[in-house]
Amino acid sequence: MEFRCTVCAYVHEGAAPPDACPVCGVGPELFEPMQAPAPAADPSPAPPAPASSAGVWRCTVCSYVHQGVAPPEACVVCGVGPELFEPVGPPAVLQGELASAGWKVVIVGAGVAGCQAAASVRETDPLASITVLSSEPGPPYRRIDLTRLLAGQVRDEAMVMYEEAFFTEQRVARVLGQARSIDLEGQSVGLSDGRRLPYDRLILANGAHAFVPPIPGVHRDGVTVLRTLDQARRVLQRCRTGGRIVVIGGGLLGLEAAVGLASCGSRVAVVEGEPWLLPRQLTQAAAQLLERKLRSQGVQVFCGARVTGILGDEAVYAVALAEGPELPAEQVILSTGIRANSELAARAGLEVGPRGISVDERLISSDPHVLAAGDVAECSGQSFGLWPIAQDQGRVAGIVAAGGQAAFVAPPTATMLKVLDLPVASIGEVHAAGPGVEIYEDQGPQRYVRVAARDGRIVGACLYGDITLAGPVRRAIESGRTVAELAGFIQDPMGA
Ligand SMILES: Cc1cc2nc3c(=O)[nH]c(=O)nc-3n(C[C@H](O)[C@H](O)[C@H](O)COP(=O)(O)OP(=O)(O)OC[C@H]3O[C@@H](n4cnc5c(N)ncnc54)[C@H](O)[C@@H]3O)c2cc1C
Predict the structure, then answer these.
(1) What is the CA(474)–ligand 1 centre distance, in A?
(2) Most exposed of 8, 24, 33, 301 (fewest Cβ within 10 Å)?
(3) In-domain check, residue 63
């Protein structure tokens, strides 16, 4: 059974909703059971049928599946000989039901999009051979929990998203390696160590990397970004009580890192170039409340500030601002946005937009055998950089890659501030403006509610201090409900 968080759209599998949403932290009462998604009207392009005379052989070591009259001389994934392959029956078993039976599906990236894609391929096609390629060693982990790790709210061991048992049970081969090239014509992925992985369908789920702005001194020792478990561990290793840390970037991730590190005893300053914190998610009024709260927790905040350099010898010792004080720092965390890892696709000749690999609503790229999902994908001109979206796109890509039918429908995006013990939510078009837009706003000393409607229909909300409206607003946006239909919910906060 699947339950969806009505606030952030995270999908949980289990007999009951979780005690707390791992993405936004709300309780089980804000989860709703999910209905199976309706099949897409437009079917996938006809897949190439597997050779009809072929049998299917599975490597008993790594689960790699080979099609042919005999097993291969060596497993392309783990290298074992033909004696370690077992027949798993001719693909005809499922051919009548699913044209793709026994396809080789290669997935690049073992983040949430890649792992979810693997699970969906398996669910759709029990015979598919699935290989997940990951450049990060160790089991896949919850990237969204990196800031909770810095805050000491999650232990290192609890970061694991999928244990080895998942790969064994799902018969998914996990390969450690870096994809370096894609041969679209020959349908194979080349690894940096020279190995090649042939595919019938390729899912690119290789995520994004943190953007490093061209500030003088960014390469000094002690300056880091926060994208991987390894980077978070190194930040923690360098932390000491009373140590000074400067976080450059007052977005969600930067603020979570700042609050987390401050709660563990570091003295933290946040530098934001925009006039207020979380400029994309919050209005100035909500951001002012947030800034006050951060200061009360010992975090210094510098908004509208421009960093001119990171000073030091080998190691950093301060951050210089265009105006204002020099901020002492023994660590600097750059939190200035992400960029899709789309160069692999671009080099192969796939169409790439400014935000990622261009895909249609079935997540198929400009090559019909290649799909993309998660932070690396740009779907109808949009990319999100959000966990639940990567999870859902992984699901859709897995189904489509296995020959099934599914489509990605972009939900209204919702973001929440974790770590800080304070509910803040931003849903849909927070800054909606222009003809037909009406704003419902209410503010108290510790809370702020702003709901935006266009032509009577709810389009967005910014909530601070109390996010009980988040679920109803989100559902209202998705179903096109009017302000009048939401009156029961917004009456109270507006005090109307
Ligand atoms: C600190 C932090 C906090 C966050 N908090 C939130 C939050 O609260 N809410 C929210 O919605 N989102 C949050 N996010 C964003 C969320 O984590 C991402 O949207 C999500 O992880 C994207 O998943 P993905 O599978 O697309 O990519 P990724 O998680 O980036 O995984 C891609 C994987 O592919 C691997 N890879 C890359 N290139 C190659 C290659 N050439 N060969 C092989 N492997 C490769 C990478 O090493 C990586 O392991 C946060 C992100 C960070 C960093």
Answers:
(1) 24
(2) 33
(3) no
